Amino acid sequence: MAVSSSKSTTTCGCPVTAFQKMISGKYKLRIMWDLKDGPLRYGEIRTGLLRGVERTREIAPRVLSRELKALAHTGLVDRKDYGVVPPKVEYRLTRKGDSFIPIIAAIRKWGTRHLGQAGNGEKVQRIAAE
Hints:
mainly alpha; three-stranded antiparallel sheet; 8 helices; 3 strands; 55% helix
């Protein structure tokens, strides 16, 4: 088995660990999924995260900001600040982020198929249908 000496994988141990760190977080995958159809503003992303999930608490603004900054830092999402008052900021997937959408779709498909059989299928189906 060949061992890669690239800086990004050696600092995190392996590509899987680096990838896991990049997408870890409660909302990152859902944010990326919502951005697949085009750019969204902060409020639209926040509203999208609450859609279709019963008995969920509102996401704290600090948490959402942290998730968006982390996605931008990893190069998955681009943040465009228009520099106007009131503030107008849009978030969109980068090419790197867009290349990840088929993987999220595969995860959703797997979750629908396998987690639906585990007894909590109704909830999984609702989330997967978003």
